[in-house]
Amino acid sequence: MRKITIVAVAMCLTSATAWAQSQTLSGRVLDAAGRPVIGATVVEKGTNNGTATDNDGRFSLSTRAAAPRLVISSIGFASQEVTAGSGEVSVSLAEATTSLGTVQVVGSRSQNRSVTDSPSPVDIIDLREVTTRTGQLDVNQLLQFVAPSFNSNRQTGSDGADHVDPASLRGLGPDQTLVLVNGKRQHQSALVNLFGSRGRGNTGTDLNVIPAASIERIEILRDGAAAQYGSDAIAGVINIVLKSSVKELTASVNYGAYDAKYRFDDEKFDGGNFNANLNYGLGLGERGSFINATLDYNKREHTQRANVPSPDGLARREYGDPEVTNVSGYLNSKFALSDKSHIYVFGGANKRRGDAFAWTRFADDDRNVPAIYPNGFDPIITSDIWDVSAVAGFRTSLGGWELDLSENFGSNRFEYGVENSLNASLGASSPTSFDAGGFQLSQDIVSLGLTRNFKTVLQGLNVAAGAEWRRERYSLFAGEEKSYRNYNTDPNVEVASGSQGFPGFQPTDAIEAKRSNFGAYVDAELSLTPQWLLAGALRFENYTDFGSTLNYKASTRYNLTEFLTLRGTYSTGFRAPSLAQINFNSTFTNFIGGEPVEVLLARNNSAVTRKLGIPSLKQETSNSANVGLTSRIGSSLSLTLDGYYIKVKDRVVLTSQFSADDPVIGEDLQALNVGQAQFFANAADTRSIGLDVVLNHALALGAGGRLNSTLAANFNRLRIDRVQTSGRLTGREEEFFGAREQAFVKASAPPSKINLTFDYKVSRFGALLRFVRFDKVQLIDWNGDPMNYKARTTTDLTLSYSLSDHVQLAIGSSNLGNVYPTLFNPQLTETGGAWDPVQMGANGRFYFAKLQARF
User: Which residue positions does the secretion signal occupy (predicted)?
Assistant: First the structure.
């Protein structure tokens, strides 16, 4: 029925415009120097009707409007809108520069800095272009397949990480990348990742709370920037720029599903993913005031990938992606007070409900009660996640200075539930669903920034300064009593306590913690000559729980020729451990070689960690350097090469697990009635060396056709230089942060990821062909043996067609070759499946269709 409705709507929209008289517009697009811009996109505003310029910069476009507005854009140039009259359209595009009237390009606070001549490497990703022609729907997966330096994968069997995908830049931790929205710090998730192959022991920012339909572009600064933006920016910065378009309504409906390989039943497809969104911008007055709003709904169903032969029997009956329902609303707005002043407000809310598979309890398991589940059971870990953010600010011009004053609030609340479960100590009277507790993280930020450009100082001097006060709060709250308590009264019988699948947080785990931070910065960019730029930044930070730190960054860029630019940066950085890493405490069930073991993760600075000699957490520090070149040959070819070096000292990691028979701390663990224990610690120093390569080429191909080709690659090598211990565990480095845990850190930094994309458009037809090569990674199984995941290449294909000027249909497949990671014994992997969550995911071929309307 849904398919019939979609087709009917498309036919009505197509026929409604068929009767109108058409006209053909022609024109030419040049750059500031008068050279033709090849492959520039020319689109009739509010429609999907568009074309591209040829090798002489000329275009021809049929339209039914009398005097249409045309939007002209090209990589490296500022978009421009013109009204087409009766004669030929002539457009001169300026290089893309930042403006305080909109949003700064991340990495520079200069009002006059272009993306192509930035001293630091910046990727600009146009989300409108990406979302209309690829199968991915959420922000994490979109970036995973278009930005080689960005890594994220869905996880399963990983408790909370099943519901919040961890992501990273240049192979560092999820918490070492700072996320901004419209240039303002986005709050982190309350979740700290404990399982899975990526982000273990890390907190991070949940990018998927922001619907892709609300985003105009994403800017990725691939360079250390703690001196510019503060804590967490060791690996780089991701700036999400929300839409500000007006008088344009966009609506889209998307659906896709996977080939159902490795299922127990005969289902041909699973993991159905339905998304619907609506975006509209309303202009207010003549001074650029606007309100742009987005509503988004996404429902992703379970996949089942447990039917893989195991020499030791099946580890799990249920294994695959969780079921997730996401509902969100986002707003971006600006209200002009005068020609020089305006108020801005943006933010949104996201509600997520997740159902994830936990480990199977078979019928003869001593954690099962046959009277309730005669055939055993598969617990479900549920999540209810509320995420809200709101930013309000005031911008004005004062005596040549641009002032920005803002208030920023954000909160993430994660509540666990357990269904299809039981508490074995209650026997047949046990309930089957439980409230297991959860945690919440919030931030309040007040910031003040000043920027001024002195055009008469040499070739231009830009100065920026500001201050920021931030307060963070973290709470961990207990679940209901039956989710954690052991009701067994017979001391001669051992019975598992708490809800199976995920024991609830106990009252002794609960905590309320907070801290404040004050930061002040100054940075400057000086153009000594038209060819040579020098830049520097200095930032002071003071935390109530860590003291003070001072960090700096120095950058330079030199234009050797009109077509070749050299650039380089050096910076120091820091990251304060998150409140979750400091205060998290839990006793949970881990499965080691298929056998359940109770594990204590003890809070830092608790009586337990002090007794065991685990030191207090301290900040991570870093030194990083970036040396690169950019080359632009005309308007059709651009190349960037950036080599980088990042050294992180005192990295916060999750240690190996110590058993109750340990010769040093075993008696202490036995007294705590746990089989194993692990901790957060500043246990490792890491060093990363890598290279980013991006090559773009535009070619006019056929009558009005355009072929954009992109080769983008990241080559990375991460080493663990030193493991450090202290107290009673001194000298036991290989046990404290052992080879298995080290392998998880290294696997988050694969040796390479290479993306080759061909994007062709002609008239109403479009085709996108993309190859992504994920390099080999190595993990270690529960027996201590290596698991070598071989390199894999996935192929994506999308075909699109504009049914009318306003309606576009796209169909395609991601992972067309149905490629899976290397298979292993499910009894020996981290999550009990035939593979760990690595590389490109483990669901196989995905088919999808998208219908988009734009008015």
Answer: 1-20
Q: What is the β-pairing status of strands 511-527 and 341-357?
A: unpaired
Indicate whether 275 belongs to any domain. Answer: no
Q: Three-class SS of residue 428?
A: helix
| 469: exposed, middle or buried (Cβ count in 10 Å: 0-12, 13-18, 19+) | middle
- Residue 596: the pLDDT is 66
Query: Of 38, 66, 93, which closes a domain?
Result: 93
* CATH code of 82's domain: 2.60.40.1120
Answer whether 708's CB lies under 8 Å from 126's CB: no
CA atoms within 13 A on the CB side of 4: 1
Cα dihedral 254, 260, 261, 262 sign:
positive
Whether residues 114 and 59 fall in one domain: no
Domain that holds residue 583: 102-247+255-264+349-689+713-751+816-839
Q: Determine contact, residues 10/807, Cβ cutoff 8 Å.
A: yes
Write out the H or E segment, with its range, that includes residue 583.
Answer: helix 579-583
DSSP 527-549: ESSSSEEEEEEEEEEEETTTEEE
* Pair 84, 229 in one domain: no
Question: From CA 143, how far away is CA 136, in angstroms rounded?
Answer: 9
The torsion defined by the Cα of 806, 811, 814 and 816, in degrees rounded to 10, comes to -150
Poorest-pLDDT segment among 296-300, 380-384, 840-844: 840-844
AA letter at 271:
G
Say which DSSP state 375 is in. T
CA 432/CA 429 separation, integer angstroms: 9
Cβ-based burial of 561 (10 A; exposed 0-12, middle 13-18, buried ≥19): exposed
3-state secondary structure of 19: coil
| R_g over Cα of the chain | 27
Please give the DSSP secondary-structure letter assigned to residue 84: -
* Residues counted in the chain: 855
The first and second tokens of residue 330, run together, are 């986002």
For residues 209 and 328, give the distance between their C-alpha atoms in angstroms, rounded to a whole number.
Answer: 7
Q: Are residues 666 and 643 in the same domain?
A: yes
Name the phi and psi angles at 2, rounded to 5. Answer: -60, -40
* Integer Cα distance of 209 and 367 in angstroms: 36
Query: Do 138 and 243 belong together in one domain?
Result: yes
Q: Which of 73, 93, 113 is the last residue of a domain?
A: 93
pLDDT at 592: 60
Q: Distance between CA atoms of 400 and 340, rounded to whole angstroms?
A: 11
Contact 500, 421 (CB under 8 A): yes
663 and 723 in a single domain? The answer is yes
Nearest CA to 424 out of 351, 361, 352 is that of: 361
Domain-located, residue 315 = no
Give the separation between CA 229 and CA 236, rounded to whole angstroms: 10
589 vs 645: CA distance, rounded Å: 39
Together in a domain, 480 and 511: yes
Q: Do 139 and 168 lie in a common domain?
A: yes
pLDDT digits (tens, 9 = 90+) for 635-661: 678 888 999 999 999 999 988 888 888
Q: pTM to 2 decimals?
A: 0.88
Question: Is 259 part of any domain?
Answer: yes
* Residue 600 near residue 614 (C-beta atoms within 8 A): no
Q: Does some domain include residue 270?
A: no
Query: Strands, E, within 110-235: which ranges?
Result: 122-126, 150-152, 167-169, 177-181, 184-185, 215-221
Give the total number of structural domains in the chain. Answer: 2
Q: What is the pLDDT of residues 391-418, one digit of tens each?
A: 999 999 998 899 999 999 999 999 999 9
Report how far residue 112's alpha carbon sits from residue 93's, in angstroms, rounded to the nearest whole number: 15
Cα distances (angstroms) measured from residue 60 to each of 89, 93, 411: 10, 18, 50
Alpha-carbon distance 435 to 431, whole Å?
Answer: 11
Binning the chain into helix, strand and coil, the percentages to the nearest 5 are 10, 50, 40
Instruction: Kindly give, in sequence order, each residue whose CB lies less than 8 Å from that of residue 50, ignoring residues fewer than 6 positions away.
Output: 41, 42, 43, 44, 61, 761
